[in-house]
Amino acid sequence: MRLYLVQHAEAVPAEEDPDRPLSDKGRTDVQRVASFLARSVRVGRIVHSPKTRARDTAILLAQALGPGDVTEEEASGLAPNDATDALAGAIAGWSEDTMVVGHLPFMDRLASRLVAGSEEANVAAFQPGTVVCLERADGGGWALAWMVRPELLGG
Predict the structure, then answer these.
(1) pTM of the full predicted structure?
(2) Which is nearest to 96 in space by CA: 125, 53, 65?
């Protein structure tokens, strides 16, 4: 199984819009990443936090990587400072390739917990729009397979 951890793309400042939708740059960045990944990545489900910037990122990714415009909003457990326990426990029971779109520092702590067993390990350098691919080994542990950031794709 593959697990794709995504930091939402760049959002507008709260002073401009308190809902913080994606900025034009954020929308362009996530579309570029989605187009690149669509060559080889398909996911059965995309889960995201209820914040607008995460939902917008998830929808753009879903359109390119499957399952269309269908995403699943998590009402709790994916906020920037939430504990990783609940989601890490849920992930242990998942069997289909899944993408999770959320926020820092949560995504960094979750990746570190799954790969290194410590939330403080800092196993991936997330930036807005980053996708980190983890693979679950036969023994149940996770390994970092690859990551892509918008800056790598030019533009």
Answers:
(1) 0.95
(2) 65
